[in-house]
Amino acid sequence: MIVVIALLMCLAVICDGKFHRHRVPNITPNQMHQITLDPVEKVKLTWMVDWPEKNVFFQVKNGINDKFSWFAVGFSRRGDFARTDFCIFQKEENDRIDTNIDAWSSKDGREIIIDRQQDCISIARTNKDEIAFRRKFDTCDEEDFNFHEGTMFIYWMRGEEPLDFVDESIPMPDLSEENFGMSHVQLLRADSISIPEK
């Protein structure tokens, strides 16, 4: 947890190939939230809500490793896979996670379509195997799913073979059950606070 906090407190945002500083609020442990996506591979999703700036900061641990070359986190309105809003990350030849794609699944769930407006903003990482990114609550993009304070559904998937993003869409990869999953969370949950006793 301390490592995650330290990481998020010194973030630099990568945009158009350049590093940009991004204001991150002071973080305390009770503002960090975490779920385990895959207990076997120990894949964990950690997030922090920046209420003043209306951003959510995410970190995925163990999503990409020597076996898997890409990992995707998706946000769904009602738990349906169709029209799920994805942030896809891929390891390149230098073994760094350099590809970051904002995309969404087609209405029939058979294709992944690259969004014209890229709103999954990568964050500089000290560990090359960690994924870190941020996204606005509302990106003003009709293809994106607006984050809200109710229950949301998080899809995740990963694969061994690299994805080819040459075209505007790619066929939905054929994934085994252990490389695909869904969890429901309250993403914009209120941070816990402590009230001193009188």
From TrEMBL:
A Pfam entry, by short name: DOMON
Protein topology in the membrane: Single-pass membrane protein
Cellular compartment(s): Membrane
N-terminal signal peptide: 1-17
One Gene Ontology term, aspect cellular component: extracellular space
Main localization (coarse): membrane
Keyword field contains Cell wall biogenesis/degradation: no
Origin superkingdom: Eukaryota
Keywords carried by this UniProt record: Copper, Metal-binding, Monooxygenase, Oxidoreductase, Signal
A Gene Ontology biological process term: dopamine catabolic process
PROSITE patterns attached to this UniProt entry: DOMON (PS50836)
Keyword Metal-binding belongs to the record: yes
Cofactor section: Cu(2+)
GO molecular function, one term: copper ion binding
Residues of the DOMON domain: 41-159
PANTHER family: DOPAMINE BETA HYDROXYLASE RELATED (PTHR10157), DOPAMINE BETA-HYDROXYLASE (PTHR10157:SF29)
Name of the protein in question: DOMON domain-containing protein
Phylogenetic classification of the source organism: Eukaryota, Metazoa, Ecdysozoa, Arthropoda, Hexapoda
